[in-house]
Amino acid sequence: MVRKYSDLYLDARKALLPGEGQQRAGLLARELLCAASGKTQEEILVRRDQYAPSDVCEKMADFTARALAGEPLAYILEEWDFYGMTLYVNRDVLIPRDDTCAVTELAMKKALYLDQDPRILDLCTGSGCIGLAIARKVKDARVTLADISREALAVAKRNAAAMKLTGRVSCIQANALQAPSAFLGTFDLIVSNPPYVRSGDMANLQPSVRDFEPSLALDGGADGLDFYRSIASRYGRALKPGGWLCFEFGMGQGDEVCAILEENGYEIVERKTDFNEIERAVLAQKRREEENHGNEESCICCLLYTSPSP
Question: Do 155 and 126 contact (CB within 8 A), yes or no?
Fold first, then answer.
């Protein structure tokens, strides 16, 4: 049934009110109507007494039903803002969160002071939010977005194209739980927001996360640390000597993640909190074992080939 724009808004607001409260229900109703109609809030306000086309009415009914079922707004709108970017998202990727700004800023700060044309790997990239934010800020960086999910990589590739970054940003399938292919080459910096929810906690997540966001991007194994152990132990070969590894982690996991890094030959350089003063990220540097080993060999050679004193 064809309805006025004002009625579409009021109907949605009324339906959402019991579960969202007055202010939130109004905000959601406006966002949904803008998405359904393809118009700005100002345009809808001007047309509030006009009848909306039937396809807009149908789309608005569908969007409202999805919101009532608990589907996150980002998936309904198919976009979300992160670090000054409007990213395409769908249910194949996690919704970028403010928590992830901590690891993004930590990695970005380091990337700005790397040598010219640094190579950066965003592992477990999802939507590509971290790597793309770095590529936008660090103008000479060559960024690789990597994920095991082909569907997630399609989202990341779409976002890179939308931001006209495909000249410096590439997408490749990679499994963070396996050794990296030699095809990847070596990087100055690897940044990762890997799955870190304990398997036993998956069922207790908020319904909007548990029922809609991809479990592949959430489940970090029995203790939530499987990906940290794997990346720290396996991906060192994909780092240049003295290269950098930057992780996001879950609340309260900082000490365990840092211990894993130290056990695998990394030196902890900085730990960072998010906007809520909750520790969320760490930057570590790979120790230059190769150089030390080379020095030892040189010393041995000197001993072997130096003639004894008369």
Answer: yes
